[in-house]
């Protein structure tokens, strides 16, 4: 029989305690497992690599090799993979790009022949040969993003439905970035750029490109649904929120999964919408906010943010699903048939007790939308997580990046611990 179980403020339905099975299988040289990890029903895992320098986002090339952005070195590492029994291991492991090429973002073009990386200032493009691992000279295609302070990630995503497009997300300068009420500031925003134009002449982030969505505080994961072509993002919302002088930050605001439509849809009604930040944030625990009629995901105005007219928050776009406060989703990837999206929750730094530090699944229906309603608190299905979080954030599994290969294996990076895991059964 099923039972509702509480995971850090989130109710999820699990069938029995056997849904979580501690299991470990490691590739040679990866050492003993340091963390007590547990799995959702039907999954198993192995450790592929350890000792990396803050691995973040990842990509799998057309030959099945794994490419990893190492934020700690600004480098890209290439793992040539081979099956060893019922797990996958690295046949070789080499650095293919250096020189502070990336601090987070990495993605391949739709044809797999161009590799893109991002750092604070630029998005770079490299000719890439998947068979040999040869990488050409890097070329800046988007520039003008460097600032002092603020969120450092510059998430990059390409489109198989619109192959000349690259999406670049840029977060806020601070917790409450008041100037972002002006779209021209070009922060807390997702913009699309023409790859071919950028290869001819570098494009300026603020001046060029098109706005896909704005009013999103810190977008760290963006992906495309492989079946319908819809663009989805996961966002880290505001910290230290108060309302009417009362501290409500422990359980508000919600983190957010947002839908941005299909890039090549000329009538995309989601294109260019404002999602509220910095003036309006989504509720996770409406009762704690204390506003009558507020639901999960409803936008409200906290203390200390730029003023908006009464009722204006209700006119801004909100997310398609919402997640517990401060769980910090850093990446999202769909399985090949679009029936599920997997999300890496990096974990909280300012919540008591700590929450996050897990990979979860959101199920999607035949219409290309989540099966759960906007107000759901049970949309997440447990996949892979720490069994206890007393040592988090610094001494635990802390997922940052996700990547599927052609065999349906899900690669997960843990940046704090420097590990790469593989989940089977996703």
Descriptive overview:
It is a single chain. This protein is mainly β and 426 residues long. Helix content is 2%, strand content 39%. The chain is built from two helices and 33 strands. It has helices at 195-200, 286-289; strands at residues 3-7, 10-14, 37-39, 44-49, 55-60, 66-70, 75-84, 87-97, 106-108, 114-118, 123-127, 139-143, 156-158, 165-170, 189-194, 203-204, 210-214, 218-224, 230-236, 242-243, 246-247, 255-262, 273-274, 281-282, 299-300, 321-323, 329-334, 340-345, 358-363, 380-386, 399-404, 410-414, 419-424. The strands form nine sheets. It has a five-stranded antiparallel sheet, with no helix packed on it. Strands 9-10-11-12-16 form a five-stranded mixed sheet. A five-stranded mixed sheet has the order 13-14-15-17-23. Strand 7 and strand 8 form a beta hairpin. It starts with a strand and ends with a strand. Residues 1-5 and 12-23 have low confidence and may be disordered.
């Amino acid at each position: 029989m099923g039972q509702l179980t509480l995971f850090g403020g989130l109710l999820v339905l699990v069938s029995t305690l056997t849904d979580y099975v501690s299991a470990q299988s490691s590739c040679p040289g990866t050492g003993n497992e340091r963390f007590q990890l547990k799995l959702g029903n039907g999954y198993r895992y192995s450790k592929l690599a350890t000792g990396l320098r803050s691995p973040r986002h990842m990509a799998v090339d057309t030959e099945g090799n794994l490419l990893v952005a190492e934020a700690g070195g600004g480098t890209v590492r290439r793992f040539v993979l081979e099956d060893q029994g019922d797990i996958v291991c690295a046949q070789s492991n080499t650095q293919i790009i250096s020189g502070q090429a990336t601090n987070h973002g990495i993605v391949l073009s739709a044809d797999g022949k161009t590799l893109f990386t991002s750092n604070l200032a630029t998005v770079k493009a490299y000719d890439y040969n998947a068979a040999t691992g040869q990488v050409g000279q890097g070329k800046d295609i988007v520039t003008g993003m460097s600032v002092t302070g603020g969120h450092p990630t510059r998430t990059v995503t390409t489109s198989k439905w619109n192959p000349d497009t690259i999406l670049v997300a840029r977060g806020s300068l601070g917790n409450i970035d008041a100037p972002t009420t002006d779209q021209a500031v070009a922060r807390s925003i997702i913009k699309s750029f023409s790859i071919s134009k950028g290869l001819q002449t570098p494009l300026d982030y603020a001046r060029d490109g098109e706005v896909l969505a704005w009013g999103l505080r810190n977008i760290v994961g963006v992906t495309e649904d492989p079946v319908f072509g819809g663009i989805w993002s996961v966002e880290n919302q505001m910290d230290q929120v108060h309302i009417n002088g009362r501290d409500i930050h422990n359980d508000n605001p919600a983190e957010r999964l947002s839908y941005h439509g299909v890039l090549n849809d000329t009538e995309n009604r989601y294109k260019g919408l404002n999602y509220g930040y910095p003036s309006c944030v989504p509720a996770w625990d409406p009762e704690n906010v204390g506003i009558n009629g507020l639901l999960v995901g409803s936008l409200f105005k906290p203390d200390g943010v730029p003023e908006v007219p009464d009722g204006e928050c209700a006119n801004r776009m909100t997310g398609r699903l919402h997640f517990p406060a401060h769980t910090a989703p850093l990446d999202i990837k769909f399985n090949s048939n679009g029936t599920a999206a997997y999300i890496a929750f990096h974990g909280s730094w300012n919540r008591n007790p700590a929450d996050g530090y897990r990979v979860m699944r959101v199920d999607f229906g035949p219409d290309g939308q989540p099966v759960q309603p906007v107000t759901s608190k049970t949309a997440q299905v447990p996949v892979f997580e720490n069994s206890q979080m007393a040592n988090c954030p610094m001494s635990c599994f802390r997922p940052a990046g996700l990547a599927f290969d052609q065999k349906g294996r899900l690669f997960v990076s843990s940046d704090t611990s420097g590990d790469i895991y593989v989940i089977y059964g996703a």
